[in-house]
Amino acid sequence: MTQNDSLKNWLLEPPKYTIFRINKLMELDIVNLQNYLEEQRKELNTNSIPKYYFLKPDCLVIEQWPTTLSFEKSKNEVIVDPLCAAAVLRGAHVYAPGVLGLPTNCDINERIDIYGSMDGQCKRGHKVKYDGNKQYVGTGFLKMLRYHLFDKAVQPSGIAIQTLLPASRLPVLNETIFSKGQVLLQNLPSIIAGWVVNAQPYEFILDMCAAPGNKTTHLAEMSNNKAVIIAIDKTIQKCAKIQQTCNKQGATCVKAYAYDSTKIHSGDDNNNNIMEPPFCSNSFNKILLDAPCSGLGQRPQLNNIISPKMLQSYKFVQRKLFDAAVKILEINGKLIYSTCTVTVDENEGMVAWALEKFPCLKLIPAEPLYGGPGLPNVGLSDKERLMVQRFGPEDDELRPVEDIYKNTIGFFIAAFVKTKDHNS
Ligand SMILES: C[S@@+](CC[C@H](N)C(=O)[O-])C[C@H]1O[C@@H](n2cnc3c(N)ncnc32)[C@H](O)[C@@H]1O
């Protein structure tokens, strides 16, 4: 198998663990999880609940149901779109807009097998058994019939199938089992990006591409709401989403602005307004650039429809954002760059480009280092490869990776320090 094939296969599978980021600003009702899993255990008629544990105080890991669990094939099948199929594999219910096909002879509450349409050929409203390319993703209980889903007069919403057991055997979990704001379903490398920033009280931190605010709130929480965090995204709607996430999680030290971060450096260094964009040179102690990217690290990836032209385009906006970040980062300040993709251009390629373009930047270890090293032979020395974190299927003897950090989404993190003024 080539490296490319092994990456493709890895991307088709969901992560093996479900992760909740715990909001340390609130008390956690962990007993809710125990009770919820107990209820599920009874319904699944099995002996034990999945193992769960804290990887760190702000990171709760839940494992899969035992391999012995299985169900007989159900009488009927529902066909869902690839995005919905991917969500089911990660432990979600089926929401009405994701349903493409359902037979006419179904009854409410019957158990029904869930299939993802993999060929894009299944049309909404499909009535009979689908014979195209489909993948089994789980089984559940039917909560809506055809007329709820496909009648012209309805805008379908709500749970159409209550998932009982995904094919991945991940537990069906969502944030609603806890009180509002206590937890957030978040991919492990995204949480690690927050740990790398390591926000401390009284630091002045910029989150350049912040919506929906999942990392912003993490930074606020880890500083105990004592850092000053400026969160930017490009539209008012995205900015409102950041504010909403902050309100939900009690993050009170965040100021969100709608702004184009490629233009966030003010040409006027006498501008004394430090709280609003654009910012003058050398303003921030730390900057998180969680860049817009091709998103090819999402797992499982059941429909990849990104065009080669689109794929090529990301590095240009990433470079512009990076350039602005370097200017407004203070000397000795730390810049953390992250993406949720697997392409070299957007990851190791960006690091190599930045080190060449900005003599004021020094690569530093993106600690804590849990992911693998950067890929070899793409512009980074072994020493540099060891300083970054790549989350992917690769095995590299430079740094072995524990299963939990391997069986997650594709992601990349690099950290830099600005050692001198960017003009010098
Ligand atoms: C990977 S997402 C950020 C996710 C976010 N950091 C989180 O953890 O919740 C990238 C974000 O960059 C934003 N973005 C893209 N171009 C931008 C620009 N020029 N200025 C500011 N934000 C931008 C997108 O709107 C998108 O919300």
Radius of gyration using CA atoms only: 23 Å
| Second rung of CATH, namely the architecture of the largest domain | 3-Layer(aba) Sandwich
Helix content: 25-40%
CATH superfamily of the largest domain: Vaccinia Virus protein VP39
- The oligomeric state is single chain
The CATH class of the largest domain, by name, is Alpha Beta
The CATH topology of the largest domain comes to Rossmann fold
Largest sheet: 8 strands, mixed
List the uncertain runs. none
By secondary-structure content and strand pairing, the structural class works out as alpha/beta
Helix-strand sequence: HEHEEEHEEEEHEEHEHEHEEHEHEHEHE
Q: Give the cofactors and ligands.
A: S-adenosylmethionine
Number of strands: 18
Mean pLDDT, all residues? 95
Number of helical segments with 4 or more residues: 11
Strand portion: 15-25%
Shape: globular
Measure the end-to-end span.
49 Å
> How many domain modules?
3
Report on this structure.
Belongs to the class I-like SAM-binding methyltransferase superfamily. RsmB/NOP family. It comes from Vanessa tameamea. The structure is a single chain. The protein has 424 residues and is α/β, with parallel strands linked by helices. It has 3 domains: 17-66, no CATH class; 77-166, PUA domain (Archaeosine Trna-guanine Transglycosylase, Chain: A, domain 4, Roll), CATH 2.30.130; 187-418, Vaccinia Virus protein VP39 (Rossmann fold), CATH 3.40.50. It is built from 11 helices and 18 strands. The strands form 3 sheets. Strands 11, 12, 13, 14, 15, 16, 17 and 18 form an 8-stranded mixed beta sheet that branches. Helix 5 (188-197) packs across helix 6. The radius of gyration is 23 Å and the shape is globular. The model has no long low-confidence stretch (mean pLDDT 95). Bound molecules: S-adenosylmethionine. The site of S-adenosylmethionine (SAM) has 17 residues, from helix 6 and strand 12.
